[in-house]
Amino acid sequence: MMELELRRVRHDRTELYTRAVQPILWLAIYGTIMSSVRAIPTGGIPYIDYISPGVLMQSVIMLSIFYGLVMVWERESGILKKLYSTPASRYAIIVGRSMAAGIRGIFQALIIVPIALLLGVQFLPNILYFALAIFIVFFISGGFAALSIVIATFMKTRERFMGIGQVIVMPLFFASNALYPITMMPPIVHYIAIFNPMSYGVDAVRGLMISGDLSGLLLDIAAIALFDALMFVIASASSRRIIE
Questions:
Q1: Nearest partner of 239 among 105, 141, 60, 98, judged by Cα
Q2: N-term to C-term CA, the chain
Q3: How many Å apart are CA 158 and CA 129, to the nearest integer?
Q4: Is residue 196 a contact partner of residue 221, using CB atoms and an 8 Å limit?
Q5: Rg (CA), the chain
Q6: Residue 157 in this model has a pLDDT that exceeds 70
Q7: What is the pTM of this model?
């Protein structure tokens, strides 16, 4: 399934380019303007550098959330019913479909990172850290793609599904450490951020690519792994609803 997604990306990269417009605006306009304000404590990191991992993660997760549209289209075309008639288990199909979204997540990251470099973002010159950060992007993409499959089981038409992406991703984005430290948040939002998987993804990528602070990396990876495993189980349990 990942190989199939790789071929899709190779033949049609339009979605990757269009999805890159929003993060470019976040970095080029918002990041540049807020860098001159210096009102947000970033631990000595330039603000545009600080938000780059968060903007990257938001873009990747937005891409993954809309991956459920593939399942809706496959249901309408009859492909999904044929796929479920194969000997593969539903869990294997869901994991394969979800992790295929990680392929697009990697390509999205490889588009945004060079643009961030052109805007002056200073990434750590460590190829191992960069590779691990890309793996985390790939990994968390799968979890949010599985979440989109769960949503697709309840919203079985493309029209109903289209509006759900912004409703899910933007609240998670603002209730995370993507744009500001969690310690600045009001108490209620602070607690939401603690249970927000995006917070752990941003923290891991920021430590590996920007700050070099890896003190919480194991916790971040464990939280992302738990989120992925939970989403895979829920998506596989509810996936049969989409063809009923």
A1: 98
A2: 23
A3: 38
A4: no
A5: 18
A6: no
A7: 0.88
As to burial, measured by CB atoms within 10 angstroms (0-12 exposed, 13-18 middle, 19+ buried), residue 127 is exposed
Q: Which two tokens stand for residue 185?
A: 């948040």
Contact between 102 and 139 (Cβ < 8 Å): yes
On the CB side of 4, CA atoms within 13 Å amount to 8
Q: Residue 49: which residues within 8 A CB-CB, separation 6 or more?
A: 42, 121, 122, 210
pLDDT, tens digit (0-9, with 9 covering 90-100), for 44-86? 888 899 999 999 998 888 888 887 777 777 776 777 777 777 7
**Distance in angstroms (rounded) separating the CA atoms of residues 138 and 240:** 25
**3-class SS letters over the chain:** CHHHHHHHHHHCCHHHHHHCHHHHHHHHHHHHHHHHHCCCCCCCCCHHHHHHHHHHHHHHHHHHHCCHHHHHHHHHHCHHHHHHCCCCCHHHHHHHHHHHHHHHHHHHHHHHHHHHHHCCCCCCCCHHHHHHHHHHHHHHHHHHHHHHHHHHHHCCCHHHHHCHHHHHHHHHHHCCCCCCCHHHCCHHHHHHHHCCHHHHHHHHHHHHHHHCCCCCHHHHHHHHHHHHHHHHHHHHHHHHHHHC
Contacts of 220 (CB under 8 A, 6+ apart): 136, 200, 201, 203, 204, 207
Structure tokens at 7: 């071929």
